[in-house]
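Tokens for chain A. Residues wanted.
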């Protein structure tokens, strides 16, 4: 399923029943059930070590049911494969529409009543295991396996610090401590369909290495589509709801082509080359194309003080650095107070908020035209 079709499904998950039915009828149970099973497996994967085991999953629509085996490995990884298993730890059955809404719809309180479950089901329908409890190790393993899959179906959404630790990104713990400030600015976007772009995938030249933060955003924004760009091919990182492309952030034409293919984006995160000139190029091209109400994030401001990145080692940071750029943005927000300053730039007219922290900054997009303080207000204290 391509990203545009997936976005339609996510949007329909928050709409009325007729709208959702139209989308599910278009793609069919056979087309949607593997996607949903894979999403559960992605969300259920944990850094804990649950011991290993299988869960049987059924997804039904009208008179048909697609069946899958969710396998929890000893290292916490979860995979989904079509088929059945003889002796699952847990058996789960969902209606297609209920499962789509659970995974991709807005977070709504619904405590129970939308699935069927059987813990340690008998090998055959009608078969009785007797009155003896299962072997303690079998019982313990089944509880761990079932709990891992249940976590992937939970309406509880982990916070960013927890996700950064789970997926191994450097945004929290050690080099950077960004998770808390990200949480402050991103939580309002968490429950809506959106497109997130991150510049810089990581893993250097290997096509399957990197992508840790892309997985963080995929898990954090449960209704989001995540795009990552890098100067190297990162196609090995691609998976449902994650798309990568080869783009050099210093190339304006390549950035325009990226936006025309996959945009507009709601959130752009620049964690790319960190070269000061490249940061400015990406901002100049992508901020005007950002959706109104969107957020533009610049990481690793420390390179403003590194000559190798075009920074000023002796400080203060000059106009050609990312810090110098942010200083101008801060003043530009007040352009209505400087009537003789000439025509405002795009950034002056559309950056409505700037939040700067240690090594990271957030720019809010909107209409910066509230008007200045009237001329009749005295310019000197009375």
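Reply:
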């Amino acid at each position: 399923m391509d990203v545009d079709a997936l976005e339609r499904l996510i949007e329909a998950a928050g709409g009325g029943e007729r709208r959702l039915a139209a989308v599910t009828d278009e793609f069919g149970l056979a087309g949607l059930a593997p996607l949903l099973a894979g999403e559960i497996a992605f969300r259920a994967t944990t850094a804990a070590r649950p011991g290993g085991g299988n869960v049987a999953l059924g997804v039904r629509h009208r008179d048909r049911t697609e069946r899958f085996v969710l396998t929890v490995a000893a290292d916490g990884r979860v995979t989904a494969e079509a088929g059945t298993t003889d002796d699952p730890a847990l058996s789960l059955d969902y209606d297609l529409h209920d499962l789509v809404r659970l995974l991709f719809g807005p977070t709504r309180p619904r405590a129970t009543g939308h699935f069927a479950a059987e813990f340690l089901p008998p090998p055959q329908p009608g078969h009785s295991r007797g009155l003896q409890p299962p072997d303690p190790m079998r019982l313990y393993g089944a509880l761990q396996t079932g709990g891992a899959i249940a976590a992937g179906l939970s309406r509880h959404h982990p916070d960013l610090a927890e996700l950064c630790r789970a997926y191994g990104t450097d945004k929290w713990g050690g080099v950077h401590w960004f998770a808390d400030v990200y949480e402050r600015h991103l939580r309002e976007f968490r429950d809506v369909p959106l497109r997130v772009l991150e510049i810089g995938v990581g893993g250097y030249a290997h096509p399957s290495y990197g992508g840790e933060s892309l997985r963080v955003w995929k898990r954090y924004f449960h209704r989001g589509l995540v795009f990552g760009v890098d100067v190297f091919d990162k196609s090995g990182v691609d998976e449902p709801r994650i798309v990568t492309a080869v783009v050099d952030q210093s190339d304006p034409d390549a950035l325009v082509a990226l936006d025309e293919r996959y945009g507009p984006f709601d959130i752009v995160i620049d964690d790319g080359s960190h070269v000061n000139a490249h940061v400015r190029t990406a901002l100049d091209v992508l901020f005007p194309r950002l959706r109104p109400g969107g957020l533009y994030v610049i990481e690793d401001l420390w390179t403003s003080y590194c000559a190798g990145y075009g920074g000023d080692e002796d400080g203060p940071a000059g106009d050609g650095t990312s810090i110098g750029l942010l200083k101008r943005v801060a003043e530009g927000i007040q352009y209505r107070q400087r009537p003789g300053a000439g025509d405002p730039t795009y950034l002056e007219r559309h950056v409505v908020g700037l939040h700067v922290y240690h090594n990271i900054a957030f720019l809010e997009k909107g209409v910066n035209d509230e008007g200045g303080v009237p001329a009749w207000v005295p310019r000197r204290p009375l």
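The chain has eleven helices and twelve strands. The two ends are 67 Å apart (CA to CA).
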